[in-house]
């Protein structure tokens, strides 16, 4: 295999064009094989293979800096930069991360797990380079709908005439869900203008035969009057030399254009618009770009929190025409596909724009609607200011459905939903639910649907869901275990493993909460444990201020969380049933 001989981009540059094409096929097979074993992002990585090969062939990484946005289009990049063995254990401890991570390789120069960050980071690196009088290229690879995020445009607004600065727009018209919004439509319009592109080519060829001065006069006239030579577009108006659109699977063309882009960028910033097909070369991924955006090696439980939410939000919406749902490019990921099909006029996918989603919801609330903002825990952190300024200060009843809270599993540190309790607990007017079972989750959703007085948060993890509460205080033992959220199964199993007679208090709602009443209950126990799938600043930290007695707090201790199975992450943080049982035995016997 050619791939076995490529341990760095230096090896890649020794190959012929025919061998590079064969290498692309091998990379596809390898990525399909790796993800079928370990799970991971499939479609986006299959779509960027030719572009990645061409980039490493033309540029000089790691001297030239590649900054990926989003990070889940990096598998071919990792395989070409000496990480083939790490990739065999992708998304497992000791193996490669599923995202860009500078701790993993010198070829990964900036962390990337969230979208719309790369141009800002790239611009910072480029300005530092210029201040240091250095000479290298900075290449931002923007993909999977990242152009829908507002931070991209804040960065573009500051680029000016930055030299040796290149943005490659890998346009597959997709993020996790289909890309939405005005920018998506604009890019599609650029892609569809083949007649215009052909006309530009013919006119450019004609002008090349003329004296430069005459050609320049004619070109300026046509550009100003008709606009078809350079097709004045938003990117050129913002200071880029726009090139494209280009077929991202035509390797020979990519090599030629990237070489020209590399040289031209010494004069002004360049944006290369490349169109690619998500899932390219693997028919199942081409046929179902939604399902095979990412693959998993485990079956999803029909009784998962996500599926329960999907069923319940539809029923709530049938009975309340004011309920609307908002997500940020995660229609399927947040369980909103059925809602969107049944109530298309009440469903809003705002693209990768979490901050906008929150303030948009606040505006809807002002006019009497009941918005549910459905966003993963770590993505929602990006809207902290909007949650504070636009929701909290006005006490608007926005409903936050916080998916993937707690330990992230194989997605690792960039997706660790362990800060949301600390974040939301700052806002004293918020109702915050941490259901651990089906019954409590449905009760929390009903409350959210009817509460029009203040904001509501429902956060839930990827944990197994006990069907019944099994929540009790008998005060028949000297040991109390307080569970907060998605670790109830671990607590229940730990009691059985340890053989210790212990009472469980399963916290269903952490705000508002009667801490003084719980402190009175705690007084009756000799040993008190608090188990929480979060960090300092959460429920346990607050409880400690009300209780003079020593609390044995069991919570996430190893930060950042390393990518691996959720079960392994629980063990690493002493949150597994066996770990909790050992602490019970050690403390209480």
Structure overview:
α17 runs parallel beside α19 (384-392). The protein contains 26 helices and 18 strands. Residues 191-199 and 223-231 have low confidence and may be disordered. The chain has 3 domains: 3-176 and 234-292, 3-Layer(aba) Sandwich (Rossmann fold), CATH 3.40.50; 305-459, Thiamin diphosphate (ThDP)-binding fold, Pyr/PP domains (Rossmann fold, 3-Layer(aba) Sandwich); 479-588, Rossmann fold (3-Layer(aba) Sandwich), CATH 3.40.50.920. Strands 9-8-10-11-13-12-16 form a 7-stranded mixed β-sheet, sandwiched between helices. The protein is of the alpha/beta class and 589 residues long. The longest helix is centred in the N-terminal third of the chain and has 22 residues, at 17-38.
> Helical element count?
26
The named CATH superfamily of the largest domain: Thiamin diphosphate (ThDP)-binding fold, Pyr/PP domains
Would you state the CATH class of the largest domain?
Alpha Beta
Shape: globular
What's the N-to-C terminus distance?
A: 60 Å
Profile the largest sheet. Answer: 7 strands, mixed
Q: Domain count, please report it.
A: 3
Strand coverage percent? 5-15%
Computed over alpha carbons, the radius of gyration is 27 Å
Number of strands: 18
CATH topology call of the largest domain: Rossmann fold
Q: Which structural category fits the helices and strands?
A: alpha/beta
Measured as a percent range, the helix fraction is 40-55%
The overall pLDDT, averaged over residues, is: 85
Can you name the CATH architecture of the largest domain?
3-Layer(aba) Sandwich
Low-confidence stretches: 191-199, 223-231
| Widest sheet, order of strands | 9-8-10-11-13-12-16
């Amino acid at each position: 295999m050619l791939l076995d001989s490529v341990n760095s981009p230096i090896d890649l540059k020794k190959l012929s064009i025919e061998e590079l094409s064969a290498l692309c096929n091998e990379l596809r097979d390898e990525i399909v094989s790796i993800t079928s074993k370990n799970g991971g992002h499939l479609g986006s990585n299959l779509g960027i293979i030719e572009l990645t090969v061409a980039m490493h062939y033309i540029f000089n990484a790691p001297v030239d800096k590649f900054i990926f946005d989003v990070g889940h289009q990096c598998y071919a990049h990792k395989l070409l930069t000496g990480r083939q063995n790490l990739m065999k254990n992708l998304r497992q401890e000791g193996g490669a991360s599923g995202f860009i991570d500078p701790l993993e390789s010198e070829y990964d120069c900036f962390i990337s797990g969230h979208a719309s960050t790369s141009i800002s980071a790239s611009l910072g690196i480029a300005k530092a380079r210029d201040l240091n009088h250095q000479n290298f290229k900075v290449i931002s690879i923007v993909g999977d709908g990242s152009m829908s995020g507002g931070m991209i445009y804040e960065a573009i607004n500051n680029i000016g005439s930055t030299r040796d600065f290149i943005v490659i727009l890998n346009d597959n018209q997709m993020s996790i869900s289909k890309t939405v919004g005005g920018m998506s439509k604009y890019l599609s319009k650029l892609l569809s203008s083949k007649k215009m592109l052909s006309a530009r080519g013919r006119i450019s060829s004609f002008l090349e035969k003329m004296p430069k001065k005459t050609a320049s006069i004619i070109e300026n006239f046509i550009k100003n009057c008709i606009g078809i030579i350079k097709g004045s577009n938003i990117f050129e108006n913002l200071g880029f030399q726009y090139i494209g659109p280009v077929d991202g699977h035509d390797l020979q063309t990519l090599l030629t254009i990237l070489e020209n882009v590399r040289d031209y960028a010494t004069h002004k910033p360049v944006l290369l618009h490349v169109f690619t097909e998500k899932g390219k070369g693997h028919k199942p991924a081409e046929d179902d770009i939604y399902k095979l955006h990412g693959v998993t090696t485990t079956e999803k439980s029909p009784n998962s929190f996500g599926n329960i939410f999907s069923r319940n939000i539809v029923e709530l919406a049938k009975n309340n025409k004011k309920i609307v749902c908002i997500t940020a490019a995660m229609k399927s990921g947040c369980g909103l596909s059925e809602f969107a099909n049944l109530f298309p006029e009440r469903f809003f996918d705002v693209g990768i724009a979490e901050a906008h989603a929150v303030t948009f919801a606040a505006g809807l609330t002002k006019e009497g609607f009941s918005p549910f903002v459905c966003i993963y825990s770590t993505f929602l952190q990006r809207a902290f200011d909007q949650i504070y300024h636009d929701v909290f200060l006005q006490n608007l009843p926005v409903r936050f459905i916080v998916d993937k809270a707690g330990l992230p599993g194989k997605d690792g540190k960039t997706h660790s939903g362990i800060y949301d309790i600390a974040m939301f607990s700052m806002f004293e007017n918020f109702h915050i639910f941490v259901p651990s079972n089906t019954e409590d989750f449905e009760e929390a959703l009903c409350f959210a649907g009817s509460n029009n007085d203040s904001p509501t948060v429902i956060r839930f993890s990827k944990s197994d869901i006990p069907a019944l509460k099994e929540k009790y205080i008998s005060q028949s033992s000297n040991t109390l275990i307080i569970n907060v959220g998605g670790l109830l199964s671990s607590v229940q199993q730990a009691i059985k493993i340890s053989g210790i007679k212990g009472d469980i208090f399963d916290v269903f709602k952490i705000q508002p909460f009667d801490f003084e009443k719980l402190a009175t209950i705690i007084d009756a126990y000799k040993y008190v444990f608090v188990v929480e799938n979060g960090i300092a600043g959460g429920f346990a930290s607050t409880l400690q201020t009300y209780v003079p007695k020593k609390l044995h707090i069991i919570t996430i201790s190893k930060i950042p969380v390393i990518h691996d199975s959720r079960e392994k992450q629980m063990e690493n943080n002493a949150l597994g049933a066996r770990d909790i049982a050992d602490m019970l035995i050690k403390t209480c016997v």
